[in-house]
């Protein structure tokens, strides 16, 4: 029988309702009616549900709950459950909002339930809740602090991290002003920062400032501000605060080390130049005077040699503290080298220079107490000043250099005094600058050359070796000795490349001589303190083929004792490389230093050169016994240690005779021969009868070459004469048909008939 129109309408509405609808008979809790939405909600078909107990599909989680809801409905009260969970056919759960009413069907009570799916909403809520939980956990566990201030600067929120950063409980700070925590010197920075905050919620770059810790200490913090005034939930400025005190202290320590001398704590050269630049800028505005004082201790090396370098360091530290006391806060005192101090100060006028110098001298003159006892030192001071219009064009490095020049003038005039840089010194500086530029071009344009001075074997005075001596063929000034340019080369660093060239050129020339017939000839080369310990020298020693081509043991390096005083791993490594190349090491100017004997033990020394000061008075009648005894003692010491002794500066027959009597094995000086170019040295080798055969090309103009036999005849006066024998060499195994009686055979050479 057809349903009435009203019933048909209600069924249509029931079937097409968007929420899941279910009708359950209360007597046995069987499902009698479901709509399509309910089936979709739980994943069942209508036949799976109708006629089955509602409990089997999870509509009633517990029997007690079912009884409670049933009683509520039978009492005429609708039942609502804002949040419930139903189990789907696959075992998943669906979040629903349930409402149920009692309905009468055919006189029997039923429950009409509507299940609104809220799964999407609940998922969103769970995500938000998890996010909020994570945020809360991060905030509460973070060691950084989050501060919120209102538009009047009052703190309205402080995260628990504020206790770690500032030592306060959050409740102690809420309601107080943020400004009360800031360092007075940072208030202007903070005000400017807040005034520039944009209106959006974009975080701004971090800024570092100081905030007061509960202990009273000032802590450096990194603050990042975000303007959240328009966010209703916050309505304030959010500031993330991180403690960066340790990082700041580390940065300050690194900066301090980069700008200060590690021994004394004074400014170093870099910071000094910065402060001189600032002083020049002030003088330019005010019209004042800037003065730079270059202070150098007199004979500081004697302190190191006598008491040791640790005592020397303590002396420098005490003097640094003394000098710092007499200076103003605006002055800068720097240590830029071993015993070199530089002071930069503003003066009212140049007349104030003398007063300050006197204070410095009095301060330094007082004895310094060292572990070994009191030590008194003096200081030489050079001053450079600039005032007026010259301030604008003056560089800090120029002032320091000028003061350095004036200091050397004070040293040369007797030490323990002060000198002011003047026009004469200015010309010297200009000459030095010009010389530095010319030195740069000298190597590139091959202006350097080597002279060689013989080293003779005593008593025969035959040539055993040569010393290579540097000369500069200056395009304008002519031939220059090392004394005229070597100090400048050492100061500007060009001595490194020059020294490498000298070593390699001497090796090349020595190889030529050895191939021409003097295989046992040796050559010595002076090595500067700048070279030894420099990586460039080690590279030359280990890789240069020129050094490998000379006969073993015939290339020698001469070192001064001042070089060996700088004991270091780099120097030891270089000397090991020298020995590894079958080269020999000798000590120049032996006997003039404090520690020569220890150096003979510490380093691979194979020969010493007796300083010319010991040789000068030999045979002159002035203290003859003492000088001769000193030289003889050195000779005996070298013989005991199995090293060679070479007397330098032999200029008279009398000196040579004394050395011969003493038993000195080698001599060098003008008495035997003056330094000369390689070509002239070759001629001297030929004429003097040096050991080995001679071979070379000699031709007179227009003459043709012929092979001749050379013979050497020596007179009793040690002079030599060369005579030529047969014009062509004999056949192998044949006899020389024309020997010179009493002559020593010197080998074959090619000469022209005219020559």
Strand fraction: 25-35%
Distance from N terminus to C terminus (CA atoms, Å) equals 156 Å
Shape: elongated
Structural class: alpha+beta
* Unreliable residue runs: 691-755
Classify the helix fraction into a percent range. 25-40%
Number of strands: 30
Spatial sequence of strands, sheet with the most strands: 18-19-21-22-23-24-25-26
Describe it.
The longest helix is centred in the N-terminal third of the chain and has 23 residues. The protein is built from 26 helices and 30 strands. The strands form six sheets. The chain has an eight-stranded mixed barrel, surrounded by five helices.
Keywords:
alpha+beta; 26 helices; elongated
Summarize the helices and strands and which ones pair or pack.
Layout: H1 5-15, E1 20-25, E2 31-34, H2 36-42, H3 46-49, H4 63-74, E3 79-87, E4 93-105, E5 108-117, H5 119-141, E6 145-149, E7 155-158, H6 162-166, H7 170-173, H8 187-195, E8 207-212, E9 218-228, E10 236-243, H9 245-259, H10 269-286, E11 289-297, H11 300-307, H12 309-325, E12 332-335, E13 340-347, H13 352-365, E14 368-370, E15 373-375, E16 379-387, H14 396-412, E17 418-420, H15 423-444, E18 448-457, E19 462-474, E20 478-480, H16 486-492, H17 495-516, E21 522-526, H18 535-543, H19 545-549, E22 555-560, H20 561-565, H21 569-580, E23 584-590, H22 596-602, E24 605-610, H23 612-615, H24 624-640, E25 644-647, H25 653-662, E26 666-667, E27 676-677, H26 678-688, E28 706-714, E29 720-724, E30 744-751
Parallel strand pairs: 16-17, 19-21, 21-22, 22-23, 23-24, 24-25, 25-26
Antiparallel strand pairs: 1-2, 1-5, 3-4, 4-5, 6-7, 6-10, 8-9, 9-10, 11-13, 11-16, 12-13, 14-15, 18-19, 18-26, 18-27, 19-20, 28-29, 28-30
Helix pairs in contact: 11-12, 14-15, 18-21
């Amino acid at each position: 029988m057809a349903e009435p129109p009203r019933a048909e309408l209600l069924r249509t509405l029931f079937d097409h309702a968007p929420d899941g609808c279910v009708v359950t008979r209360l007597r046995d809790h069987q499902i009698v009616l479901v709509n399509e939405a309910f089936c979709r909600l739980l994943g069942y078909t209508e036949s799976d549900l109708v006629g089955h107990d509602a409990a089997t599909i999870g509509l009633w989680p517990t029997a007690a709950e079912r009884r409670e809801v049933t009683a509520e409905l039978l009492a005429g009260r609708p039942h609502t459950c804002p949040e419930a969970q139903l189990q789907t056919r696959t075992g998943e759960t669906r979040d629903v909002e349930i409402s149920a009413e009692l309905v009468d069907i055919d006189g029997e009570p039923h429950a009409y339930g509507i299940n609104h799916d809220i799964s999407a909403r609940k998922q969103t809520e769970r995500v938000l809740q998890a996010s909020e939980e994570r945020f809360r956990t991060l905030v509460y566990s973070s060691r950084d602090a989050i501060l919120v201030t209102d538009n009047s600067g009052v703190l309205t929120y402080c995260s628990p991290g504020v206790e770690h950063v500032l030592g306060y409980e959050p409740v102690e700070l809420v309601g107080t002003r943020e400004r009360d925590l800031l360092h007075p010197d940072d208030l202007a920075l903070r005000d400017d920062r807040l005034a520039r905050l944009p209106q959006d919620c974009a975080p701004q770059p971090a800024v570092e400032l100081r905030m007061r810790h509960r202990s009273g200490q000032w802590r450096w913090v990194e603050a990042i501000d975000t303007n959240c005034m328009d966010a209703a939930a916050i309505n304030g400025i959010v500031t993330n605060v991180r403690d960066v005190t340790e990082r700041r202290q580390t940065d300050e320590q690194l900066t301090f080390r980069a700008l200060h001398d590690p021994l004394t704590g004074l400014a170093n050269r870099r910071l000094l130049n910065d402060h001189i630049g600032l002083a020049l800028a002030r003088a330019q505005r005010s019209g004042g005077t800037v003065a730079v004082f270059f202070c150098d201790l007199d004979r500081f090396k004697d302190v190191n040699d006598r008491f040791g370098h640790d005592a020397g360091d303590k002396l420098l530290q005490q003097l640094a503290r003394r000098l710092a006391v007499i200076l103003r806060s605006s002055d800068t005192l720097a240590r830029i080298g071993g015993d070199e101090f530089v002071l930069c100060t503003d003066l009212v006028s140049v007349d104030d220079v003398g007063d300050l110098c006197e204070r410095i001298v009095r301060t330094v003159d007082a004895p310094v107490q060292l572990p070994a006892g009191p030590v008194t030192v003096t200081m030489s001071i050079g001053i450079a000043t600039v005032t007026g219009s010259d301030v604008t064009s003056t560089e800090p490095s120029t002032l320091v250099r000028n003061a350095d020049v004036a200091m050397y003038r004070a040293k040369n005039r007797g030490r323990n005094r002060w000198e002011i840089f003047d026009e004469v010194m200015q010309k010297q500086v200009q000459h030095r600058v010009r010389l530095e530029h010319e030195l740069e071009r000298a190597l590139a344009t091959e202006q350097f050359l080597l002279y060689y001075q013989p080293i003779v074997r005593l008593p025969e005075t035959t040539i055993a070796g040569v010393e290579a001596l540097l000369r500069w063929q200056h395009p304008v000034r002519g031939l220059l000795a090392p004394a005229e340019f070597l100090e400048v080369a050492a100061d500007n660093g060009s001595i490194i490349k020059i020294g490498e060239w000298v070593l390699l050129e001497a090796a090349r020339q020595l190889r030529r001589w050895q191939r021409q017939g003097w295989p046992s000839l040796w050559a010595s080369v002076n090595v500067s303190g700048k070279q030894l310990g420099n990586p460039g020298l080690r590279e030359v020693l280990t890789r240069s083929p020129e050094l490998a081509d000379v006969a073993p043991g015939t290339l020698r390096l001469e070192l001064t004792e001042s070089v060996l005083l700088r004991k270091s791993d780099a120097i030891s490594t270089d000397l090991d490389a020298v020995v590894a190349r079958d080269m020999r090491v000798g000590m120049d100017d032996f006997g003039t230093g404090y520690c020569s004997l220890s150096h003979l033990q510490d380093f691979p020394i194979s020969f010493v050169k007796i300083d010319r000061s010991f040789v000068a008075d030999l045979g002159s009648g002035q203290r003859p016994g003492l000088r001769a005894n000193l030289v003889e003692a050195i000779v005996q010491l070298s013989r005991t240690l199995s090293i060679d002794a070479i007397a330098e500066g032999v200029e008279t027959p009398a000196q040579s005779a004394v050395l011969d009597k003493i038993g000195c094995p080698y001599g060098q000086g003008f008495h035997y021969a003056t330094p000369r170019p390689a070509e002239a040295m070759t001629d001297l080798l030929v004429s003097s009868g040096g050991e080995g055969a001679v071979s070379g090309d000699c031709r007179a103009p227009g003459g043709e070459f012929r092979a001749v036999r050379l013979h050497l005849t020596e007179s009793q006066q040690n002079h030599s004469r060369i005579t030529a024998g047969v014009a062509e060499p004999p056949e192998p195994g044949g006899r020389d048909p024309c020997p010179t009686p009493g002559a020593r055979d010197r080998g074959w050479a090619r000469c022209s008939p005219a020559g």
